[in-house]
Write a structure and sequence with these properties.
This protein has 227 residues and is mainly β. The chain has helices at 86-89, 175-182, 206-216; strands spanning 11-15, 19-21, 27-31, 38-46, 52-60, 67-68, 76-77, 92-93, 109-117, 124-133, 140-146, 149-155, 164-169, 186-191.
């Protein structure tokens, strides 16, 4: 995608596609710069609470006016050296002691990547939006309430049978279950705590056994004698 605020020849690309799975690496490339030009690359994302996370790194274009994060080192900024995914893993909140909240698995993690002039006010030269999806194509998501337990079931596409995983989360979270389902597992995510831990006087483990039995009964699950 080419930036709208600068020369039409300057581009910022996310390869092989600007839309990908959450855990997939991508290649970020910039073209159309001057030979040896210094630019600042920035990444910005907003979590579900509205907290802004950002990172930046300074790069120098090669003799062809190109920058390739798979090849070129960051000279300064949020990280230094060759880090192909550095702009993503170095994202930090603008306020201290914040973690990135991402619970809505049906909505992508959206990251804006932009290229800015190193001189003056850092005019933006190009930008691209990277949409990182937690749930893969064809993976189904089903809220479950059976007996004494409730959770969310993720099932990969295809006939199966698939191996199954009971994902016990301290508090309800679907991110890990999604990633596993993308890899070919039937996953049931169940929260250990359904209330604040201080309010829990006793915990009945039979609901987890019910969850395992529920998984065994799924038609796409590969049943084993010792599950």
């Amino acid at each position: 995608m080419k930036g709208s605020s600068a020369s039409d020849e300057i581009s910022c690309q996310v390869l092989p596609s600007a839309r990908c799975l959450f855990d997939e690496p991508v290649q970020v490339k910039v073209g159309g710069l001057r030979s040896g030009q210094l630019v600042t690359m920035r990444a910005t994302s907003i979590d579900e609470r509205g907290v802004v996370f950002s990172s930046s790194a300074t790069y120098r274009a090669d003799g062809n006016g190109e920058i390739d994060l798979d090849r070129d080192p960051s000279l300064s900024g949020s990280y230094v050296g060759v880090e192909p995914m550095g702009l993503l893993w170095s994202l930090r909140a603008d306020t201290l002691h914040q973690y990135f909240l991402k619970n809505k698995v049906l909505e992508p993690h959206v990251v804006k990547l932009s290229v800015h002039e190193e001189e003056g006010e850092g005019r933006m030269l190009a930008e691209v939006i990277n949409e990182r999806f937690l749930i893969g194509d064809g993976v189904s998501r089903l809220s479950v309430k059976e007996g004494n337990f409730q959770g969310v079931l993720f099932t990969p596409p295809g006939e199966g049978p698939f191996p199954a995983v009971l994902d016990l989360c301290t508090f309800m979270s679907e991110k890990r279950a999604c990633v596993l389902a993308n890899k070919g597992f039937v996953v049931l995510a169940v929260a250990v705590y359904t209330d604040k831990p201080d309010n829990v006087k006793e915990m009945h483990l039979d609901r987890f056994e019910e969850a395992v039995d529920f998984l065994r009964q799924q038609p796409k699950v590969r049943c084993l004698s010792n599950f």
